[in-house]
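Translate sequence into structure tokens.
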Amino acid sequence: MIEIVISKNQGNQRFDRFLRKYFENAPLSVISKNIRKKNFKINNKRAKNTDFVYEGDIVKMYITDENYYNWLTKTDFKPIDFNLEIVYEDENIIIMDKDYGELTHAASKDDYGNNLVDNMLSYLYKTKSFDMSDKTFKPAVVNRLDRNTAGLVIGAKNGESLRILNKAIRENRIDKYYLTIVSGEVKKDFKIDSIISKNENKNKVSRSDYGKNILTYFKVLDSNSKYSFLECKLITGRTHQIRYSLKENGTPILGDRKYGIKNVNSVIKEKYGINNQILLSYKIVFPEIKGLEYLCGKEFVSKKYDGMIKLKEKIMAR
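Result follows.
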């Protein structure tokens, strides 16, 4: 018999989900079979799939040592050298400034160590900022940016914060602001409220009657006859939402290779060496969130803000 105590990160989840994370190498059928055979107990009571485990609960596993170690989640994390721009950090969250051209997550094995999440894990591992012995949890990001969009990404350092922040993101409660430079003159503020769906083969979105709703507010910060400098406030958070919305408005983002204007992009590339969309996730504002109340009203700004302003002044010079 093997006995474990549920940690804070492991708590507050269904027992079958906990086991699927804890025994990553065990097929789901094997986990289900052992639950049915009463091989697991929570606080000395027979465990069911739908039971919840909480911090401090004692789980007894009536399985062999061999099965335990064969099924166990193996930590394959390697402490690479990290390259991370940190805007804010406390015991629960970390806010990072992603670079243009950097992946948020690895898209393949070849991307290992060359993405924001791996750099975050490396930093947290080397600074011992989270419990690497916890076999069911790794810190994770709660929002993501396209490879060629720069700016603020929020990471959660423990399981409770991850659940709280994921819920806040799903409910569109955390205010996220972007800055961009677009083609064309925009004279007044506007919003784009539409429905889109994604073409997975082309990795592009388009208008659809059966997709997901998007809502973005756009504020004019500067404008001339050729270009406009906008602040974008995301209400929903869909793939390519801002890029698609500005293309629909007839004012696509400069440098955007998917939704932009080719000849305009060519000019921007030739003059300024820019070959990707000019889009920066520059500000995050937290509301009152139960469990993270101390963040209420706090505002975090990207360290790339000044660079965006200088670029705007260069491109929009009259």
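Note: The radius of gyration is 23 Å.
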